[in-house]
Amino acid sequence: MKALLATLAIAVVAVAGVILLAGGKQGQRTMPPTSGTAMVALRPVPAPRLTDEQINRQDPPDARRQREEARVFDGRPLLNALPTTLQGVGFDIGGLAADGHTTIVRVDARGLGRRRARIAYATLRRRTGDRSRSYRLEIRP
After folding, report:
1. What is the pTM of this model?
2. Would you give the DSSP letter of residue 101?
């Protein structure tokens, strides 16, 4: 008898849980809101694709930030040369790494291979006279 009652109690708890999870509104009529607002079904609207130029215009840098960027660019001549193409390999600034000091240089090898991209990068650094070690390459073959 106790086992039957325990099984019945577990079944009641399970049914109550299912009703609560389902929202308990099956078969019930919904009343309109009393505050004068209407219930509206929302659908997701895809965000428009923005170009890099549009994104950069959204947050114009302040004067202090511009001075800091100018100081960094003056101390690292490679940054002044980017974006550029050398030996068929494209180079561009990819951003700042998580450490806050290392600049990411994006390299588009255009099918020439990683080795060719590294050789072109070394040549570009020699030509600009940049000896900084604060660069990290992201090579796209």
Report:
1. 0.50
2. S
Query: Rounded CA gap, 28 and 45, in Å?
Result: 31
The model's pLDDT over 68-89, given as tens digits with 9 standing for 90+, comes to 877 776 778 888 888 999 999 9
State the pLDDT confidence band at 38, using cuts at 50, 70 and 90.
low
User: For strand 103-108 and strand 84-86, is the pairing parallel, antiparallel, or unpaired?
Assistant: unpaired
Q: Which residues contact 61 (CB under 8 A, 6 or more apart)?
A: 69
Quote the domain boundaries for residue 129. 71-140
| Sheet with 84-86, edge to edge strand ranges | 84-86, 89-96, 103-108, 135-140
- In total, how many domains does the chain have? 1
d(CA 136, CA 101) in angstroms, rounded, equals 10
CA atoms of 71 and 77, how far apart (whole Å):
11
